[in-house]
Amino acid sequence: MAKAAEQLTEQQILDALRAVRDPDRGGDIVSLGMVSGLIVKDGNVGFTLEVDPQRGAKLEPLRKAAEKAVESLPNVLSATAVMTSESRQRGPAGRAQPVAAGHDHGHAHHGPAQGGPGASAQGRPAGLAISGIRSIIAVASAKGGVGKSTTAVNLALALSQKGLKVGLLDSDIYGPSIPRMIGITGKPHTNDGKKLVPMENYGIKCMSMGFLVPEDTPMIWRGPMVMSAIEQMLRDVEWGELDVLIVDLPPGTGDAQLTMAQRVPLTGAVIVSTPQDIALLDVRKGINMFRKVDVPVLGIIENMSYFVCPHCHEVTEIFSHGGAQREAAKFETEFLGEIPLDMAIRETSDEGRPIVVSQPDSPHSAAYRAIADKVWDRAQAILGLQEKKVPRIVMQ
Ligand code: ADP
Description:
By secondary structure, this protein is an alpha/beta fold. The chain is 32% helix and 19% strand. Strands 6, 7, 8, 9, 10, 11, 12, 13 and 14 form a nine-stranded mixed sheet that branches. It has a three-stranded mixed sheet with strand order 3-4-5, with helices on one face.
């Protein structure tokens, strides 16, 4: 974390919020006791605004004004306010019910069930939690072809080698390459006619549109269909107990990805990038997208970071190698590690024998395992934060 973000105090945030007045009640929102659950993390600020449920929709400008007031502070990277009616309605887990006027982007309303178990301690109105799945980590990239799926598969396998129960959901419905990479063919079946049983290989449970439609079949998806296909693969699948579900997101930072980030209860996201995207600032787009919807960015992985000659093993820097590390520091996120451009990685993933399982002693497998360690450490820190549930500040 940069020094600047450390200097941000709760008092500063509350002082900024005192400038925001509730137009109906004629006082500032802090003195009126509307602000609670303040969380400050790496310069990202989250808090809830307790309101009368009847006034929810009407108070959207107030919510926006509160976010703006906090965002205007130096050292604040993002501010997210969520309206709740905590004292009046409590969800099954005893937590506040987000009121249906929550968020920007117009995607925040997922039906009445969304509030209780899905709302995170950071105040993020996440989608409904999936029973049995402890954490969900998205693997994202700003564009296709950077090695996102290859990274997702090897990361999932490295997490599994740590002894975790791992699932892998290929939500890249435009080019589902996970079945080929993890060496699974055939179609999933149902046990009870309702839920699909995930396919399995190398100890990982896997679901992909590629099991249902061949990889080379062009699929035309309209916006809402994308989300409903992904939600079905997430919720209508017999995942069982999982420590972590890795979700390979479709490439890009458009609406489909944003909706995913909001509708799926993500613990965090990992961004895969090549050195040239980092130079083109594509990574910034990815980070901003997740921050906007309050999904913690666990860090950046630099893929195809440098080239190792298969004959003489000489290392060649293709683009400016090391850019991810510098960018990660700039964005106050973690640099998770680098993976070289190496034929062995390509061949093994294209043949369905990912390097982490087919060449576990190679330095590349060690690099994936080191990344998995960091990812899991960060995810656990976030899970701990979410499980705390107790607001740090409750105004009377
Ligand atoms: P994305 O999911 O970003 O579209 P893929 O994971 O499908 O990208 O990778 C695209 C191609 O690049 C695949 O053929 C894959 O085997 C190859 N590839 C990915 N990472 C590496 C790497 N580090 N070294 C060599 N080839 C790689």
